[in-house]
Amino acid sequence: MLIKGAGKPEGCKLIRFSADIEGDTLKSIRIRGDFFASPEEGFDRVEERLREIPLSEMEASFNVLLNEEGVEVFGITGAGLSSLVYASRKPVSPDKKGNP
What we know:
- The chain has one domain (2-89): 2-Layer Sandwich (Enolase-like, domain 1), CATH 3.30.390.
- The protein contains three helices and six strands; from the N terminus they run ββββαβαβα.
- The protein is globular, with a radius of gyration of 14 Å.
- The protein is an alpha+beta fold and 100 residues long.
- The strands form two sheets. A four-stranded antiparallel beta sheet has the order 1-2-3-5, covered by helices on one side. Strands 4-6 form a two-stranded antiparallel sheet.
- Helix 1 (40-49) packs antiparallel against helix 2 (58-69) and helix 2 (58-69) runs antiparallel to helix 3 (78-89).
């Protein structure tokens, strides 16, 4: 299932993402937004290394991988990213007229 989301979770700048999720596994993710990551190449490696992880481990894995790749970030956290992904998986409730 392909999902997209955007938002400003607590303690974060604007985060935008697109992800492919199969069951409860993150197959791939692209993360963009108004946050800062240095070095950028290390952040790209973090995105790649997040493939095939259980969604329940995304928050912790993101933080560990940032550390392993030596990436410093400002405006994004594992908790913020994880909360956006989970929120984007929820079905949209229709309004009284049946519109999503």
